[in-house]
Design a protein that fits this description.
Blueprint lengths: L3 H11 L8 H14 L2 E2 L1 H4 L8 H9 L6 H15 L2 E11 L10 E10 L4 E6 L12 E2 L3 E5 L2 E7 L7 E4 L6 E11 L6 H9 L10 E6 L2 E6 L2 E6 L2 E6 L3 H12 L8 H26 L1
Antiparallel strand pairs: 1-10, 2-3, 2-9, 3-4, 4-5, 6-7, 7-8, 8-9, 10-11, 11-12, 12-13
Helix pairs in contact: 1-4, 4-5
Protein name: Arylamine N-acetyltransferase
Family: Belongs to the arylamine N-acetyltransferase family.
Keywords: Transferase
Length: 290
């Protein structure tokens, strides 16, 4: 559990103050989190992965850092518990587009159970601030379709986790969906081996892919290497950011990542790697069109 000061500092990062637990405040925290605390692979890409234990994740976020699902959902879950919410952690698996659904524990799922004022009984909600471009608000674990800005989601029973549930992503999103195991796990230490692989293995996709994402009430932002994508109700706009100064300015202004924890030399190395991979990618794209 977090101390009163840690709760206050965490909520300050979100631009919020402490309120009595409610569905409304849960939604407000969720929206603030996915707007202000971006999902990213910067630290892994730079060779400086952050541990996923709760204490490290909370301090990292309070000190203007961020991360991916293990950091974001892990820290947010203990904030919610400390505020009095009934929180459960779950093993989950993200299904990349073109792949089969999976339950591999490479995603940390979170659910919150609380009284629903509309149906007048307890309801369980998917609370996930660690999926980058989805979702903006908590989603009830009730079979159906849900609309959030330009995004369309579906909740249905999972086919790979007995008695579990599946969150189907928007049709044009970068991955197909997420399956959740209903069994409750003790803490984020259950995911330590998965984090070790994703953050340190040469076979991990994140080691050579700098990806940053966040949400807002009208859509989402994504920076994939040097390609900046903005999604709204009108569609997706893409642009290449190959100027070093503009790239770091974008990372700071749009995604809230000033990278103050990195020295000038380290940031130079990040940029060299980003632009090198981007140029290699462009050459490959040109070859495909020849």
């Amino acid at each position: 559990m977090l101390t009163k000061q840690e709760i206050k500092d965490y909520l300050k990062r979100l631009g919020l103050e402490i309120y009595t637990p409610s569905k409304e405040f849960l939604s407000e925290m969720h929206r603030a989190h996915v707007e202000k605390v971006s999902w990213h692979t910067i630290d892994i890409f730079a060779g400086k992965p952050t541990p996923i234990d709760i204490k490290s994740s909370v301090q990292h976020i309070v000190n203007q850092g961020s991360g991916y699902c293990f950091h974001l959902n892990g820290a947010f879950s203990v904030l919610l518990r400390s505020l009095g919410y009934n929180v459960s952690l779950h093993r989950a698996g993200v299904q990349p587009t073109g792949k089969e659904p999976r339950m591999d524990s490479y995603h940390l799922g979170v659910s919150v159970t609380m009284m629903d004022a509309v149906i007048h009984k307890e309801q369980r909600w998917i609370v996930d601030v660690g999926l980058g471009d989805m979702p903006y608000d908590p989603l009830p674990i009730i079979v159906g379709e849900y609309e959030q800005g330009p995004f369309r989601y579906k909740i249905r029973p999972s086919e790979v986790a007995a008695n579990g549930w599946r969150l189907e992503n928007d049709p044009i999103a970068p991955f197909a969906g997420v399956d959740f195991d209903p069994e409750v796990v003790g803490d984020v230490e259950e995911f330590k081996s998965q984090h070790e692989f994703l953050s340190k293995s040469p076979d991990s996709v994140w080691g050579n892919l700098l990806l940053i994402q966040n949400r807002h009430n009208k859509g989402s932002n994504e920076l994939r290497g040097c390609v900046f994508s903005q999604r709204t109700i009108d569609g997706i706009q893409k642009s290449e950011i190959t100027n070093k100064f503009m790239w770091f300015e974008l990372v700071a202004d749009v995604f809230g990542e000033k990278l103050d924890r990195y020295s000038k030399l380290e940031k130079d190395e990040i940029w060299k790697k980003v632009i090198r991979i981007h140029e290699n990618w462009k050459r490959e794209q040109m070859k495909k069109t020849e």
